[in-house]
Structure formats: structure tokens, C-alpha cells
Amino acid sequence: MEILYVLIPLGIVLVGVAAGVLIWAVKSGQYDNLEAIGRRMPDDEP
Amino acid sequence: MSAIDWTVYDRPELRDTVSTDVGGGRREVLIGADGMHCAACVGRIEKLLADVTPDPRISLTSRTVEFRFDPEQAPLSEVLRRLDRAGFKPQVLAQDGGLQGQTAERRDALARIGVAVICAMQVMMLAWPSYTDGGVIDPGIDQLLRWAQLVVATPGVFYAGWPFLRGAWLAIRGRSLNMDVPVALSISIAYVASLVRTVLGGGEIYFDTATMFVMFLLIGRFVESRTRAQAGERLRLLAGRRKLTAQRETPDGTLETVPLSVLAVGDRLIVGPGESVPVDGELLDTAAELDEALLTGESRAVLHRSGDALLAGSVNLGQQPFALRARSVGASTWLAQITQLLQRAQTQRPRFQILADRLAGWFIFVVLLLAAGGAALWWHAGADHALSVALAVLVASCPCALSLAVPAAIAAAASRLARLGVLAANPAALSRLSRVDTVLFDKTGTLTRSDLTISGVECLDARDEAECLALAAALERGLTHPIARAFANAPSRKIALDQRQVPGQGVSGTIDGAVYSIGAADAAADAGIETVVLLRQGETALARFTLATVPRPEAAQTLTQFVGAGIAVELLTGDSDAAALALARQLGIDEVRARQTPEQKLERLRELQAQGRTVLAVGDGINDAPFLAAADVSVAMPQGAALTQTRADLLLIGDSLAALPPARAVARLADRRVRQNIAWAIGYNLSVLPLAMAGVLLPWMAALGMSLSSLLVVANALRLRAAMPPDTAPEPRPPLAEAC
Predict the structure, then answer these.
(1) Closest by Cβ to A39, choosing from B39, B103, B115
(2) CB contact (8 A) between residue A31 and residue B151
(3) Residue B194 CB partners (closer than 8 Å, separation 6+)
(4) What secondary structure does DSSP assign to B151-171, as a single string?
(5) What is the pLDDT of chain A when averaged over all its residues?
(6) What was the pLDDT predicted at B28?
(7) From A8, A27, A32, residue closest to B111, measured CB to CB
(8) If pLDDT is split at 50, 70 and 90, which confidence band does A20 have?
(9) By C-alpha distance, which of B257, B204, B226, B188 is closest to B7?
(10) How much is the pLDDT for B129?
(11) Shortest CA distance to B300 belongs to which of B441, B448, B440?
(12) CATH number of B244-364, picked from 3.30.540.10, 2.70.150.10, 3.40.50.10710, 2.30.42.10
């Protein structure tokens, strides 16, 4: 079971990444307005 | 319409009322853009504002643009002129402030919830082996899992749990107790004790308890604040739509746009067609017709002659602008006095809240005392056990389910009501709605449609009915007068040239070369219930139209349902006796009071309340506002005055009275759920507390029990969204935005 000494820290790192991505997504406004996005046509501007 | 002088919005006194300082010399402003219809419009506005502000917040659903600007570099007037020229009909909305930081707050709450959920789940997984294999687990792995839990739980407690720690610290520093104190205490005891034991390598740890606790409490708070914020957003937009400027005539005869706040008594003001009167004043032109329906409840156009007093908020129905002399300004206008009456009515409400706050303080004190008592009781069994008992007491007594009991049910009921076409602006009113036993209705715009309807056509000449209607519709086309609006739906391919409106007499125009006119038949014949209009060609009368305010099609059924449920129904109106009695007969209402002033309406309401009645008031006009505010539950119609809508508890966004009885059914159901939830939550807390004190209930069991209990309460509340009160199929709601 020595592999757990690698897997558990690795799992923690992945959790950290997931939490970081979530915070980034929320703070950059991804969840601000869930209904209006669907109405918005694809913008052909760069 | 003439070009609008936007530069008035650059004057400091007006600029400071419509925008708020956000620091760094920049200001934030909210603008209504009624000309915005589709996603392409959003893109155009973004481009128009590109050099002023990098990220405007454009909402298609509410048709508003919110952005920050630097008054030094880009004056507000410049932005408004651009939007106006692009056809977006900008309208600067008055800001009440206080809701600015909402987006940031919501993002923050979501991020914390996300972290709390992730951490709680991970800690649970890492803690699982020690629960299931306690004793046989390899000591090295056991220690590894403890350290792993410590690492994962740390952000869960300090980042996600920060609002509780901070709230508790602020309360203690202010020498008071709030709900955050026991929460912060239990998570910090759990964390610190577990930390010490992890480092020393032995004993029970409580990271799972701490993180799970934070997660459930955060979710509970979020649900509660969202319900309030959603209703608040719509009200903020409504409140903004009041008039802020007036057209003033300068001594040399030119017009200038000025903020209302600088107007003085005696100023000569001009009110354009379709515009509302900015302040109370005296009419200077020979005659003008005004729509005062929202102010007084009078359903027909009111003709004023030179020298008559005009009320602020009434709308010019004529084709021509008229002049008036300001007679009272600022706080002395009729509208401002109504607003004051309103505030007085509102301040007499929340006694219950104060009581609840005082009780909460005592409750927390008792909990802390019990936790300390539990620890002292078990001190003889060792510090470890004493700590475990104290923690179990703190967690078990957490009124988590209790604090969710009401908001969860209210949130579920509010979403249920929204599907019925009712916006619960003040969710707290739902519990009162379930106890309502008397309903007071306003007449115009509430029980009746606000517009006149053609109820009869009598042909007096050779022409047939369809042709007469077509002629009349052509003459009235494009006018805002109530009589003209009645003809708006009549089919007509004819075109009237040289259309001319004379206040108090009617409209004339040329159709196919002949001169026609339409106007009130005879003022004396007008009995007050219906309006009779004559169509003439030259001097020959062609047809007689009878116009009446008809009750809403769903009114009779709604009233029957209320009466059937044993609820008293009463009609209070500012309109004439004849009109009120006719409607009451038609709908079968026994109690009628006509010619009521706002004060009289309020008085009648207080009288009913003094008899112990729980009163639901339905209205739409500004004259209804005070009595709506004082009612136990107030309902406003969507086409009424913005002022009234902002103060109402419920708003009928579906524009149908038929939603009221089912709304009451939902409220009763919600009330039952709230009671069940509260009973369960209190029962749970009371029954586990002795177990925790006795040391039987371990902290992790307390945390699990609390979580399950909270879930049960939420699930019970959510049943409201699915359950459908019988025989109340909802009206289909109109789509929010039309096609471009």
C-alpha cells in the first residue's frame, strides 16, 4: 500500500487545481448571468 | 419629439443623484435602453461605449445598461447622445444605491461555496478509512490521512468559513452575540483540536465536522440572500423610472432642460405630448387634457382650463405641449406628500423582527453556557472527552435546519409563484398572505382594464358599422388619449390627413377628401359610467360609439373564488359613485366605497385591521400606494405606477387577477411547510442536545445529523415547487422579450 503515499498527495494537488479553476471561473464572471448567454448570438468580431 | 438636451445630466447636482462615486474619479450610472431588442443590439451598445468604458453591464431582459465613466474625460451627456442617435431611447434611471456591490458579493459567495463543497467532500473521503477500519488501519497510512485532511480542511475553514469567523469577531468586538459566534466557535474548536492532535499524532479529529458544517451553513445563507436579491433587482429598476428633469422657459422665450431640484415656484414649464407633469402647478394655456388615472383613480381623461391646478405625475394627453406655472416644488408637491404618507405607513410594521433578534441573543448565550457546562461535567473523564462533548453540544445545537426552515420554503414558494405570474417582491409577506381574510380592491386598472373598450356602436346614417369603426380608428390613430386607445384595435385601412386634436372636444381630420370629426357627444349625457362618442361628417352624425371601462375577464371568477373561500371582498375607489356601483353590481360586490381619498382608503384599512382582519390590498395607482403599504399584504398591477409597484409585496407580472387565488393556495402550502420545518428543526435540536450533553452523541454524528436534518428541511420545502394546488392551472406567461 506504499503507493498511497504518492496517490493521496497527488489527489490533494488535483483538488487544489479544481478549487483554483472554480474560483477563477466564478471571479471572472462565468456564473454571473446564466440566462443571457444563451440568447447571445455568436459574435463574429475578434 | 424635439431633441433632448442631454447636457443637463452633466450638471453636478443632477449627475450626483443619478450616478454613484466608485472611486478614482469614476462614477457608475444605470441607464434604461428601451430600444434594445436583441443580442445584436447588445453588441452595438458595447461598441458605442467602447472608448468610455471597457466592460458595461448590459442586460437584455431588463433593457438596461450599467457602466462606469470618468466625468472629466467622457461627459455623461456625450454617451447619452450617442445612444439616442443610435435609436436606443436612453433613459437615465434614478439610483437609490446600496445594491452596487451585489455582483461582487454573489461571486464571492459562490466561490466560497464551491471551495466548501470540494473541501468537505475530500475530507469526508479521507476520513472514511478511519471510521470503517478504526484499529486495523496501518499507523503510517492513518497519519498520512490525518495530514491530508489537515491540508484540505484548512482552506475549507479559513477561506470558505471566513464570513462566519469575521462575523463572530465583529460581534464580539461590538460586545454582542450573533449566530456567527457559536458557529465560529465550533469550527475553530474543531479545527484547532484536530490540528494539535494531528501534529502530536493521536486522538479523535474533527476536520470532517468542521468542513461539513461550513458547507451547509454557507449554502443556507446563499439561498436566503438570493431570494431577497432577485426581488430587489426588479424593484431597483422600477424605482429608477421617475422623472428627473423639466423643460423650463427662460425669460427670453427659449427652453432649457433643468433638474427638478432647481425648480422654483413661479417658473414657467412646458410639458410635451405624452410627457408627465414635473411639479404641481397652474395651467397657463386655455385647455389641456390629462390622464390622472394613476394619481386619483379617475379613469377618464380630465379636461383642465386655464388657471386650473395640475398634479405632478399626470400625463399630457394632447398633441400639443402646454405651459404651466410651478406652484409647489420639491417636498410640497402632492406626489411628495403621498410618498411621505407611504413612508409613515411602512415604518409601523416590523415589531416581530426586533423580538426575533433579541431572542436569538439569549438562545446563543444559553448554547454557549450548555457547551461549557457539558465540558465541565465531563472534565473528570479527561480533557479530551470534555472537549468532544463541548464540540458535540455546539454542533448539535446549531439551528442550521431552523435557519433554513423559513428561507428554503420561501424561496421555493417564490419560484412557484413566479410561474403563476406573481413576483414576490417581499417574500416575508407570504406567511401573511396565507392568513388573509379580507381583500380590498381598487377599481380602475385593477378590477377593470385601464383602457376604455368599445361596448356599443349605433349607426345613425347609411354607412355600416365596419366603415364607421374604420373612420373613427383612422381619426384616432397614434393618439394617447384614453378614447383614442379604445379604437386602437379596430381594423382600418383609411388614413386621416390633417389630424387635429382639440382638448375636451375631440379630433378632426380629412379622410378621402371629406372632413370628419369625432368627439364626446354631450357632456351632460355622460352619466359617468360610460362615455358616448359621436362620429360626424361635417355636421351630419354618422355613428354613436359607447365606450366603457370593462371589468377584466378574470375578475368575476377571481372574486367568486375569494368569496367561496370565505374571504370578504370590498371595493375602494377614487372614482365616482355611479361608476363604482355599476361595477360592483356587475361583479357582485356588496361593500363599495367611492370617491375615496388616499387618506380615507388608509383609514378604512386601519379600521379593518383594528377589527383583527388580515387585509390583502390590490391596486395600481399612486393614490393606492399608502393603503397598499399599510396592508398586511399588498398586490400591485404591472401597468400601474412605478412608485406603487416598488412598495408592493407582490407584483402581478402576468397582468392577471386570476393568479391571486392560486397564489394564496401556494402561500398556505408554504406556510404549512414552514411550520413543519420549524417543528422538525426545533424537535431535532431539543432531542439531540441531551444526547450530546450525555456524551453519547459524538461530534461527527452531530455534524451528520445536522446535515441530514438540513437536507430534510430543504427537501420538504422543495416539494412546494412540484405540488400543484388543484383546479388552478396557471395562465401561460407572455415571453419576456420580443423578436428583433
Answers:
(1) B39
(2) no
(3) B149, B150, B153, B205, B206, B207, B210
(4) HHHHHHHHTTTHHHHHHHHHH
(5) 80
(6) 79
(7) A27
(8) very high
(9) B257
(10) 83
(11) B448
(12) 2.70.150.10
- Mean pLDDT over residues B703-728, rounded? 73
Q: Looking at the predicted structure, is the pLDDT value of residue B22 above 80?
A: no
Return the residue in A2, A14, A22, A45 with the most chain B beta carbons within 10 A, the one to mutate for interface testing.
Answer: A22
pLDDT(B216) > 90? no
Catalytically annotated residues of B: 442
> What residue spans of B35-179 are helical by DSSP H?
39-48, 76-85, 102-132, 139-158, 162-173
Q: And the C-alpha cell for B391?
A: 464540540
The answer to whether B114 contacts A19, with C-beta atoms less than 8 Å apart, is yes
B141 touches A9 (CB < 8 A)? no
CATH fold of B453-548? Calcium-transporting ATPase, cytoplasmic domain N (3.40.1110)
CB contact under 8 A, A39 and B60: yes
Q: Report whether B496 contacts B519 (CB < 8 A).
A: no
- Reference A5, options B144, B6, B422, B702; nearest CA is B144
Per-residue pLDDT for B247 more than 60? Answer: yes
Q: Which residue has the higher pLDDT, B311 or B324?
A: B324
**How far apart (Å, rounded) are the C-alpha atoms in residues B546 and B528?**
12
Place of cell 371601462: B549
Residue B111 near chain A (CB below 8 Å) = yes
- Assign domain B1-95 to a CATH class: alpha beta
Grid cell listed for B162: 471566513
Same fold, B244-364 and B453-548: no
Percent of all residues in chain B with a pLDDT value above 90, rounded to a whole number: 7
Distance from CA of A40 to the nearest CA of B (A): 5
- pLDDT at residue B149, rounded to an integer: 94
pLDDT value of position B616? 92
What local confidence, expressed as pLDDT, does residue B719 receive? 83
**pLDDT for the residue numbered B156:** 93
CA distance B700 to B710: 15
Q: ipTM beyond 0.90?
A: no
C-alpha distances (whole Å) from B500 to each of B47, B60, B516, B517, B540 are: 42, 38, 11, 9, 19
Q: Summarize the confidence of residues B672-680 as an average pLDDT.
A: 87
Chain A residues within an 8 Å CB radius of B152? 12, 15
CATH architecture of the region B423-449+552-651: 3-Layer(aba) Sandwich (3.40)
Q: Which residues of A touch B39 (CB under 8 A)?
A: 39-41
Predicted local distance difference test score (pLDDT) of residue B455: 81
Among B110, B141, B152, the residue with its CB nearest the CB of A26 is B110
